[in-house]
Amino acid sequence: MSKPSSVHIEASDGGINQREDAGIKEAQWSAEIDPALLQKVIRKIDMLVIPFVCITYLITYIDKAMLGYSAVFGLKESLNLKGTEYSWLGSMFYFGYLAFEYPTAFAMQKLPVSKWLSGNIILWGGITMALAGCSHFDSFLGLRFFLGALESCSTPAYLLITATWYTVEEQPIRIGWWSTFLGIANSFGGLLAFAIGHIDGSLASWQYQFIIIGAISSAWGIFMFFNLAENPSSARWLNNEEKEIAIRRLGPRHHGGNISEIKRYQLVEAVADPKTWIFFLCGVCTQVVNGAASNFGSLIIQGFGYSNLVATLFQIPYGMVILVSNVSAMYIQRWLPGQKRCLVGALYLTSTYTASFAMIMSLITANTGGSTKRTVVNAIFFIAYCVGNIIGPFAFKSDEAPQYTSGIVAMLAAYVVEIFLLLSFAVYMRRLNSDKDKTLEREGWSLDRSGLQQLGGSVADQTDKEDVHFRYSY
């Protein structure tokens, strides 16, 4: 049974509903595409779409990690923080993220993703700069909430952009590319904090950090607003022939339209689907580790007796480990028969959680059909993202410094649980694929392109469950 390259993915936002406006006739999916021209189009997309996601991912992570860097440059003393107040500053960001996750998810189903993301970047850059003006805990806490609210669109937007432009087989590699910028952000952020720490001015070092990174964020948001294409048909850097190929190469089952209708049955199916809750638990596990590491990493290093400047420099090799781990994980899962993402994710948890987080995001994109269902599953996953990041900082108790025994135990427990979940998910997906194979065999259908054409050439906005031709990746 053959497997078409994009048999079960459909961009939930910003696809090809404008193709006729661009002067493109409906493609004949069975027509041959010139391989050389196809590779040229893919290279263009890689060069003119992915860099926007990569740089935005880098900036957003540095925004969040700046709290940890600023803590070693006098933030806690300047705000006169006591007890668990610093942990609350780390967690409050994700309360804002959590509160606005559903509104921003549905906004991106109704509005252009590129413009929504750009507008939020501009605003959160302003909030980041405003943090430098805080002189007490309450005002800083409030701004952290709004910063999280604005950043709630970031990673869901990256996933939607990737799904809009790439086939299901291509998506894990592209997600791997932009997720590696988490490692670059750790290294670059540490180096940036080190450089800013040498500024001798009228403000404290931690204030300069927020002002500089906030200004960079807002400037980038303005640039992206005018330059990131929403979909193939609106890309100024593709001519009509290239636009047609960019659409055709995704296949007839990559719907790509801007489906703004919210379908109640898909919402119910998303909530009732066991996959959704496996993703949820995996998200909690990875982000318990992230919430702890991003907020307490520099403080742990400083607790070993290093200066504040040296503590920030230690983030550089840490970031390189993340980078190598993410890149290698994405390519290894591609080379393994059947793209064994769960196996690779479980293995890489033993070295760094970031590779498994990127793998889980690619699993969600590849294994969820239906625009409303995908929106709901993404939103639930990022609720888990918030929950994990809220829990993580509180696992580190100030009276246990610098060993933080409870925090280390919590991180190890999260690793073990997630390994079990990923392996269980792989077994479950294999069983679901087997059930679909039996249904196709019983009905006498095939999974090749001729079979798709017999069913009408394209499929409406179906979920992975109701589409008998959908195949799960694991």
TrEMBL record:
The chain crosses the membrane at residues 47-66, 86-104, 116-133, 145-168, 175-196, 208-229, 309-332, 344-364, 376-396, 408-428. Signal peptide: none annotated. Its main location: membrane. Keywords: Membrane, Transmembrane, Transmembrane helix, Transport. It is found in: Membrane. Belongs to the major facilitator superfamily. Allantoate permease family. GO terms for cellular component: membrane. The keyword Transmembrane applies. It comes from Penicillium arizonense. This is Major facilitator superfamily (MFS) profile domain-containing protein. It is a multi-pass membrane protein. SUPFAM superfamilies: MFS general substrate transporter. GO terms for molecular function: transmembrane transporter activity. The keyword Hydrolase does not apply.
